[in-house]
């Protein structure tokens, strides 16, 4: 990894990003902003996108702002508090207020509808001159030569290949990683309902609160409710014991019915159950726990986002970590470092793995702990008065740790 003393000036290179999710688009935008030539290949046609909410904490939104993504256009809601409610009657048990959040961390904590954010990121990418090619599923990678082959028989060559192809990554398999997984004891239904429909049906209106609201969460059962899309959509994540279904395949997109959704929750707050009769786009999300992978990079190939570190959704950090990964790659391959402290793609990717793997793994593990213990959830974890019964051996993940991280300083310690 030791470099020669040649001082090359900044030379942009060709990047092929596999997967046009939030992570792939973030990488494309961030690298393109430094002048690299970027093409994103996506297997689908984006015709059948499923709805869901995503939250992005300050250190993710900081980059969205820096990259010029239109947050207003993405119809973001600012998270103002966490609310903990009684499982059976919905009464408020505890509130964690974020009123000093922006002052403290410099940017907001946002809730987005995934599709709104995705759309704005596509717009930004296209404006910057990123080439997005749909209906191209990568099936084979030659990591040494930098060649990607697609299922339609065509192939392309790039200096750098980024595997941003999600939790069931093909690029990951192609660089020789076989995920070690265990079934999660929980499964999740997610669904949405338009606020207007809630009003029309005269059901209880949760859209007033710009909050992440939790029912349960001290065991497997947990319902998470958020508003997004300028408060026009209410989104639900409903966790219940995996034993209730016989799915074995990991995935986001298994259709389900309202009857299936209500079955695991007979004693839940009747207001929520009433809404569950009318929700739309109910999907079963089969959760799987991945052990951290042995490596993330090989030759000219790097993994990013869910392809590198799939995490349970319980810290709401999946998208934020994908955005940080993208920012890290762009920093390493920026005019400030590329050709100066970073001499080859391979060297840059080694730095990327060193920079990102420990932090992402820590958050991946904390997300798994928070699956069945709301006290591990950032926000609640910093609130002492509700920590009682558990004897926690591992330090909890805190808001400070998520938001007070300084990537540039960290990279400088690795370069020196
Ligand atoms: C349909 C969908 C729904 C989601 N819903 C939620 C949700 O409700 N809550 C939540 O927290 N997170 C959700 N996520 C995941 C969330 O977006 C990610 O955790 C986070 O944004 C990191 O994303 P990523 O870009 O790494 O992966 P992803 O968002 O999974 O994006 C991967 C992209 O790669 C494409 N792809 C896969 N294989 C190939 C291939 N071989 N060749 C080319 N392209 C390929 C996929 O079609 C997809 O567009 C969802 C993801 C998807 C795709
Ligand atoms: C989701 O599943 C439906 C069929 O149930 C399918 O038509 C659609 O293409 C899938 N969408 C995604 C994003 O995978
Ligand atoms: C929740 O509400 C139920 C019914 O009103 C009540 O019996 C129970 O004690 C409450 N639980 C907590 C933890 O406050
Ligand atoms: C494969 O994709 C290329 C590039 O978009 C396209 O030109 C070609 O027609 C496709 N080939 C087949 C066999 O579908
Ligand atoms: C729902 O929320 C709106 C917006 O704050 C509020 O004005 C309205 O009274 C609420 N509607 C119902 C049916 O509770
Ligand atoms: C990685 C990163 O950019 N971290 C920043 C997160 O936010 C805090 C507070 O604004 C900054 O000090 C960090 O540099």
UniProtKB/TrEMBL annotation:
<keyword id="KW-1133">Transmembrane helix</keyword>
<dbReference type="InterPro" id="IPR002938">
    <property type="entry name" value="FAD-bd"/>
</dbReference>
<dbReference type="InterPro" id="IPR036188">
    <property type="entry name" value="FAD/NAD-bd_sf"/>
</dbReference>
<keyword id="KW-0812">Transmembrane</keyword>
<dbReference type="GO" id="GO:0071949">
    <property type="term" value="F:FAD binding"/>
</dbReference>
<keyword id="KW-0503">Monooxygenase</keyword>
<feature type="domain" description="FAD-binding">
    <location>
        <begin position="14"/>
        <end position="365"/>
    </location>
</feature>
<keyword id="KW-0472">Membrane</keyword>
<keyword id="KW-0560">Oxidoreductase</keyword>
<dbReference type="InterPro" id="IPR050493">
    <property type="entry name" value="FAD-dep_Monooxygenase_BioMet"/>
</dbReference>
<dbReference type="Pfam" id="PF01494">
    <property type="entry name" value="FAD_binding_3"/>
</dbReference>
<dbReference type="GO" id="GO:0004497">
    <property type="term" value="F:monooxygenase activity"/>
</dbReference>
<protein>
    <recommendedName>
        <fullName>FAD-binding domain-containing protein</fullName>
    </recommendedName>
</protein>
<feature type="transmembrane region" description="Helical">
    <location>
        <begin position="12"/>
        <end position="31"/>
    </location>
</feature>
